[in-house]
Specification:
Layout (H helix, E strand, L loop, with lengths): L22 H18 L3 H14 L8 H25 L8 H16 L12 H25 L5 H23 L11 H8 L1 E2 L2 E2 H19 L1 H11 L1 H6 L4 H27 L11 H11 L10 H20 L4 H28 L1
Antiparallel strand pairs: 1-2
Helix pairs in contact: 2-13, 3-8, 3-11, 3-12, 3-13, 4-5, 4-6, 4-11, 5-6, 5-11, 7-11, 8-9, 9-11, 12-13, 12-14
């Protein structure tokens, strides 16, 4: 008699189509179980991060020093904010390629408002808060435009956000050239703004506090609100979600607005640290934003997302990047290795989806 603990197979399932015992298949299935459990584990990336640190420590011991780990933690904060915004879009089975251009354009516009070198609000006490509001408003506006094109006109998010990225990247360069003689960046920013990226209070940096608020808020929105359930439902199936009464268009538009807002928020921290508004801000981290989310477990196919997964992916990618730099590899080599990791994560996501369907 078959034991239920062996998979609950019916008596007839032990025979194949030709009437022969199917024990090899059953055995193979049991061998797959650890792999399936590993694929399902949300802590896989955490384990890989620890293994990477231990392996790299034998080559570059300074990777695990307190100073270096603190540096990694500081560098990943704005990346986590931007990747969290990307998570909202990925959850709906879309993608936002315009995030770097949002960072660049909002950065130079905000800098032009408050710079002491002829800014519109130079020397005005309201310069910093007005500039921050302007930066965030630009992110929301561009995100809204992306969402409208995708949700209302049915355009592919890849094409829409690619066009947006090209337009606002060019606009950022033009805007900077108009407001500076060199056309490279807008500096001489007020100390009150620079403090956002470099200083803190009570032993906690402002950047960390902002990131913590973003992470907690995003987690609560995704896991405790109706909008969060709608977001995942749209990613699983827009048709089913629409039939169930989910306002699909509104959800998609809001997901892009969240991405734009958080990209602009990350731009505030990056600009504060660079001490200048630059038209190439965020240019090198587009794949990092998407890749970190996917590596952590957010599905490219939508309907599957957690803030903690984004955090795991950001930490892993930041640690890998730091280790490669400590090895003294060229920038090209670092990009190539990170690109391979992100491609592997994307392929793994496809295979994982198929594996879970068959399990």
């Amino acid at each position: 008699m078959a034991d239920g603990s062996d998979g609950g197979a019916s008596p007839g399932s032990a025979l194949g189509a030709a009437g022969k015992p199917a024990f090899p298949a059953a055995s193979g299935h049991r061998l797959l179980r650890p792999l399936i459990a590993l694929a399902r584990s949300e802590y896989l990336v955490v384990g890989l991060t620890v293994l990477y640190l231990l392996a790299m420590r034998a080559i570059v011991p300074e990777i695990t020093t307190g100073e270096n780990l603190a540096n990694i933690g500081s560098e990943l904060l704005p990346l986590f904010i931007a990747a969290t915004g990307q998570m909202f879009v990925l959850a709906t089975a879309n993608v936002d390629l315009s995030a770097p251009s949002i960072m660049a354009f909002s950065s130079v516009v905000g800098a032009s408002l408050m710079t002491d070198a002829g800014g519109y609000l130079a020397g005005n006490p309201a310069a910093v808060p007005v500039a921050c509001v302007a930066i965030l408003a630009i992110g929301l506006a561009i995100g809204w435009a992306n969402g409208i094109c995708v949700a209302s006109f049915g355009m592919p998010s890849f094409i829409v956000t690619l066009a947006t990225m090209m337009f606002f990247s060019g606009a950022a360069i033009w805007y900077t050239a108009v407001h500076t003689s060199e056309g490279s960046s807008i500096g001489s920013l007020p100390d009150g703004f620079l403090a956002i990226g470099e200083e803190g209070a009570f032993g906690i940096s402002y950047a960390f506090a902002i990131t913590l608020v973003v992470g907690v808020a995003a987690h609560l929105v995704l896991s405790r609100t109706v909008f969060g359930r709608w977001l995942l439902a749209v990613g699983l199936s827009t048709r089913t979600a629409a039939v169930s009464g989910v306002p699909v268009r509104r959800v998609i538009v809001m997901s892009f607005m969240a991405s734009g807002f958080l990209s602009a928020l990350a731009a505030i921290i990056y600009t504060g640290r660079l001490e200048a508004g630059t038209p190439v801000l965020g240019q090198r981290i587009l794949l990092d934003m998407i890749g970190a989310a996917v590596i952590g477990g957010v599905s490219l196919f939508g309907g599957k997302a957690k803030v903690t997964w984004v955090l795991y992916g950001v930490v892993f990618l930041s640690v890998v990047d730091n280790g490669l730099q400590l090895l003294g590899l060229s920038l090209f080599s670092v990009y190539a290795i990170k690109g391979a990791l992100i491609l592997f994560a994307a392929v793994s996501d496809v295979l994982r989806q198929r594996l879970l369907v068959r399990a």
